[in-house]
Amino acid sequence: MTCENFSLTHICSACQTTFLTPSIYKRSLSNGVEVFSFYKYEDIKELLFTKHTDLGFYVYDILAKLSFAKFAQEFDFGTSAVSIPIDDNVKNGYSHAAVLNRRLKSKNVKPLYNKLRAKNEISYSGKSKAFRLANARDFELKEFEGENVILVDDVVTTGATLIEASNLLARRKKEVLFCLTLTDVSQK
């Protein structure tokens, strides 16, 4: 897909190694929760745009395998944790957040699904910070076992969604250890 050479995968192994080797970027949200991201936005922007297409599932799974899966194998916070995707509703045949979350399964992390859903269906894609702040997700949280939580999303822009979700979990006596995203738009 990136080099346009023949490959049996959507992104050949050479391009995965050359262009998609993850790094760790850290950001603290205004409520003190830390967000760890793996790629600079500009480096994967075109791949993220596949999210709303049939190809998106495959691209997101490759990105998750290269970043989230490797992170999960190394993760040891001294305790077990559950991971919860932000609003894992199925759109375009799959949930991009669920694809990322699935790759966190390890001896220390148990992925959960259908636990944190937005009551509204507003799209934040391409919207301003003012729009995002004026239109909260209004999350509904279903009960689940486990106290330590890792929140999962693909992109952090203003942080409003992750703040809203982590604050709701805190009110329900759950500890958000941190958030994981593919990219942070603030990382240039």
Short synopsis of the structure:
This protein has helices spanning 13-19, 41-48, 56-66, 68-74, 96-102, 129-134, 160-171, and strands at 25-28, 34-40, 81-85, 109-111, 116-118, 139-141, 148-156, 175-184. With 188 residues, it is an alpha/beta fold. The protein has a 6-stranded mixed beta sheet, with helices on both faces. It has a two-stranded antiparallel ribbon with strand order 5-6.
Helix content: 25-40%
Cα-to-Cα separation, first versus last residue: 23 Å
CATH class: Alpha Beta
Which runs of at least 5 residues are low in confidence (pLDDT < 50)? none
Question: Would you mind describing this structure in some detail?
Answer:
The protein has 188 residues and is an alpha/beta fold. It has a single domain, classed as Rossmann fold (3-Layer(aba) Sandwich), CATH 3.40.50. It has helices at residues 13-19, 41-48, 56-66, 68-74, 96-102, 129-134, 160-171; strands at residues 25-28, 34-40, 81-85, 109-111, 116-118, 139-141, 148-156, 175-184. The strands form 2 sheets. It has a 6-stranded mixed β-sheet, with helices on both faces. A two-stranded antiparallel ribbon has the order 5-6. A hairpin with a 5-residue loop joins β1 and β2 (34-40).
Features:
188 residues, alpha/beta, 8 strands, 7 helices, Rossmann fold, two-stranded antiparallel sheet
